[in-house]
Amino acid sequence: MLKEQPRNILLRAPNWIGDAVMCEPALRGLRSLFPEAEVTMLAKPAVAELFRAAPELNRVLVYEDRGTHAGLSGKWALAGMLRRHGFDLAVLFQNAFEAAFIAWLAGIRERYGYATDGRVFFLTNPVAVPAHRHSVHQVEYYWNLLKPLGLSGRAPLPTLCVTAEEGDAMDARLAAIERGASDVVIGINPGSTYGRAKRWSPERFAEVAQRLAEQVERDEGRAVVVAILGAKGEESLGQDIASRIKARSVVLSGATTIRELMAVVKRCRILITNDTGPMHVAAAFGVPVVAVFGPTDSRTTAPYGQGRSVVREAVDCAPCLLRECPIDHRCMTRISADRVYEVAVQQVSGLRGKGAGQGEKNSSAPHALRLAPDRVLEGYTIFLDRDGTLNPDPGYIKSPDQFELFPGVAEALGRLQSSGARLILVTNQSGIARGLLSRHNLEAVHRKLADLLGRAGVTLDGIYFCPHHPDDGCRCRKPNRGMIDQAVQERGVDLGRSYVIGDHLRDIELASRIGARSVLVTTGVTRLQEVQGLTDAHLIPDGVAASLGEAADWLLSDVKRGACQGLNNVG
Fold first, then answer.
1. Are 357 and 269 in contact (CB under 8 A)?
2. Which of 209, 352, 355, 436 could be cross-linked to 431 through a Cys-Cys bond (beta carbons 3.0 to 4.6 Å apart)?
3. Pick the CATH number of 366-570 from 3.40.50.2300, 2.40.110.10, 3.90.76.10, 3.40.50.1000
């Protein structure tokens, strides 16, 4: 659809925090489509902060819509700044007329986006708005925008990054209220900048938080602190709720930057919230959510990947999308504290002793937290891809600060290892040959990987990487089997009892070449032409999973099925 391969891309982000989080998988998809391109995000200040540490981006430019870039003269100045960057493609995830107008004013050669808000004249590549837009999740809506460019499949779960320094700073801040580092943090977010119609009763927020704190302390014997979150202007709401809670609490309403909000949300065991931006931030960190929905549509904006998190009342007038309720607010007043508490207990019931809320140490999915009952994988080896499988794939990870695991990965690998499997990483790292990172950089990244897994008691049995350029014709670059052969020689791997788990079609081809079974995880990005190529070659994965946790479930079941068939054959 594009006239030529872009080398300098401007991405216009959505304006709201929640929308920006739901756009994150599409950002990863864009990077996968154009791995060699420079990608710059233009975003309003809060969203710019949200993505400041995003590994997929080369830079973030701030759109000061209430300051330097206000008014027509400000738009002209912004367009001039963008023109100096020499962008050759603008991808507009922001749907408004203004986004296309500014890209046109900046002289960007190709302007790609949905044909919304009467802006078709300013788009060189308009994409028709899907007829079912109002029933598809917003994550999928942003993801589908890129399908004409070659993206395929369903969108992976959103992910976000905070630095180790930001996490440590938040731990120190919470420690100031005399709590230990291992204590449980329960987050509540009772406000909403959209309007009062989205707000559940503060009295019921307080009741649920208190009951849940008592439950955790009784079951686990650990101290609990309730962190009350909110935007500027919601301080009195936070103080009112704190006064109703007997458990220790800290009011952070209006007292955190966006980065600090991300750090404290990541630290939470659970977040109880209205339909808000922090709800999506929590889901992106794998923090279990209980989301109270009233006037808004949970089909399009529920926490992505947490299907059991929504509490709503089925009333005829909802969703109305109004900021203020013109009648009796029945969509919210009919939701009792008991209903929300029951969902909250279900969300945290599988998390005891797991240190949830610590990024890779938590997941809302129960399968990521159950311990394997036996060692059914004794003698098996699992070859793991890295980027897109264990961690988000921004194109090239050049430093440890860019590396974070997907939520639930450590737990899933822990289940496989406790079941007896050996875990070996095999990863293509052509960035070394391209001069984008050194072997020293790669070693530092893998030390970070080992540290993150080690916190969950998981160790890798081997790490193999191919440093060569794709044009070098080496034997080790996947789907070639050189790294596998080295593992067989050095570690005595039985390929007849091996699996390959990866997000890319070359991982499936590798499994076929070595005679292993394969699992394709859809956490990464698969291009449409590659899927067609595999279909033509009759290379079909043995299993497909939406996450590494689901892949672990499938793999354990597959081995048990094989064992049962063996017993039946003997009988």
1. yes
2. 436
3. 3.40.50.1000
